[in-house]
Amino acid sequence: MRRVCVGAAVAAMTVLGAAEAQGIRVDGTPRAMPADNDFAGYFGSGPSVLLSGASLTLTAPAQVTFTEFGAESGNDNAFSVAGIGTLAEQRDFGPRLRSELSGLFPPGPLDPYLAFFGESGLRIAAGSPGFGAVVPGDAAGLHARVFLVLDDAGGDDGDFDDYIIRVDVTPAP
Ligand SMILES: [Ca+2]
Ligand SMILES: [Ca+2]
Ligand SMILES: [Ca+2]
């Protein structure tokens, strides 16, 4: 009887192990969190890392949800997911969860789908300098949640808090 229980526990651990391979990888240039990033205390309880020029990759098919988290700019910034829709900055600070976009994505680069839009419609695509991400302290790992953080002037003041989108990744149903 005991052996059966151990077997069940091992099976459960195997399932968890498989789930851990699911996630999002973020590449970019690590930099210190700017002192004037007004959201620095809201990115989660553990240590986190800011990456500029962020580039996102999915390791497995996933449901990815993009939720408007906050904004500091007071500008008309926006965030677009190609084929799904656009979130428009609501010009209040947050943090709070507001409108969201969600879709099923294949494994591979997410960059072709993602862009912020700054003042005058300036497009700030994934991988470009003003497109940042805040990830948990183990930046090189796979993540279930990251934050996309815009510097809407493309590096003008470098505070990366002008428009913030929370990204949540769950296994494809
Ligand atoms: Ca700021
Ligand atoms: Ca800025
Ligand atoms: Ca700002």
Topology (SSEs and partners):
Blueprint: H1 2-20, E1 24-31, E2 48-58, E3 62-70, E4 78-81, E5 85-88, E6 100-105, E7 108-109, E8 114-117, E9 123-125, E10 131-136, E11 145-150, E12 163-171
Antiparallel strand pairs: 1-2, 2-7, 2-10, 3-6, 3-12, 4-5, 4-8, 8-9, 10-11, 11-12
The structure holds calcium ion (3 copies).
Residues 36-38, 72, 159, 161 line the site of one calcium ion.
Q: How many separate domains?
A: 1
Number of helices: 1
Q: Report how far apart the termini are.
A: 34 Å
Q: What is the H-and-E element order?
A: HEEEEEEEEEEEE
Q: Tell me the helix content.
A: 10-25%
Supply the CATH architecture. Answer: Sandwich
Ligand list:
calcium ion
Share in β-strands:
35-45%
Shape: globular
Mean pLDDT: 87
Can you describe this structure?
The protein has 1 helix and 12 strands; from the N terminus they run H-E-E-E-E-E-E-E-E-E-E-E-E. The protein has one domain: Sandwich (Immunoglobulin-like). It is globular. The protein is mainly beta and 173 residues long. The protein has one helix at 2-20; strands at residues 24-31, 48-58, 62-70, 78-81, 85-88, 100-105, 108-109, 114-117, 123-125, 131-136, 145-150, 163-171. The longest helix is centred in the first third of the chain and has 19 residues, at 2-20. One calcium ion (CA) is lined by residues 36-38, 72, 159, 161. Residues 36-38, 72, 159, 161 line the site of one calcium ion (CA).
